[in-house]
Amino acid sequence: MKKSLLFGLVCSFGLVSTLNAQTYITNPKVAKVSPSMNQAMPFDKKVITGKETNTGLEKAIQGPSVNPYTNQPPVQFGAETKIGVTTYDLQSNSAVQDRVLNHNGTISAVWTYSESFDIAAADRGTGYNFYDGAAWGTIPTARIESEKTGWPNIGRTTGGTEIFICHNIAQGLLTQGSRTTIGSGPWTLANVTNTDQVWNRMAIGGANGQTIHHISLYQRCAGSDAVLEISGWRCHL
Fold this sequence. Notes:
By secondary structure, the chain is of the alpha+beta class. The chain has a domain at 100-225. It is 12% helix and 26% strand. The protein has two helices and nine strands. The chain has helices at residues 2-21, 54-62, and strands at 100-103, 106-113, 125-131, 149-156, 162-168, 173-179, 188-191, 197-205, 211-218.
């Protein structure tokens, strides 16, 4: 009886050992990397400050003149033209808007302008430039408005009126600029809301292409300033 039990235990142990042995991978297939690609690369210690010219910035981003993996130089698509400047980095505020408008060959462009090199940006406002089909205009050195504004949207009616809307920090309203000749002439500025609204997005359409649509955030949404509440919601569009 004891011999039979011992023999059974030995057989069981041998069977388990055999099964366990079969779970090991004796010859794993590991992808091999070419020795020419498995090389240590020098660390680029160049620091990007944000004030580089295009050439310097491109070199800082591209690093080596040849891609070590493809052994090919970097490819640039098209030519770049500098049309304006700004030191205010929060251009989109997390949502895109119309900043460049093609008029079938001519182009209007707007952006949040500032050259104060600080977040306060007391000189902030609408930067504008126009491409007449042959060349861009002179780079602006000041905003269009006389007060601090931001986040302009550009549009055009079917009647040929050029329009931008931005939010006006000084007035706490949305300000509209318009002119009847695209690309030239003085802007007529007017506040177009009677409540404290910011970060608008605009589109022009309607049956006749003359209707301005906009969506914006109602700014007063905290503490005692929360003077407008709809269905229990504050900070609404």
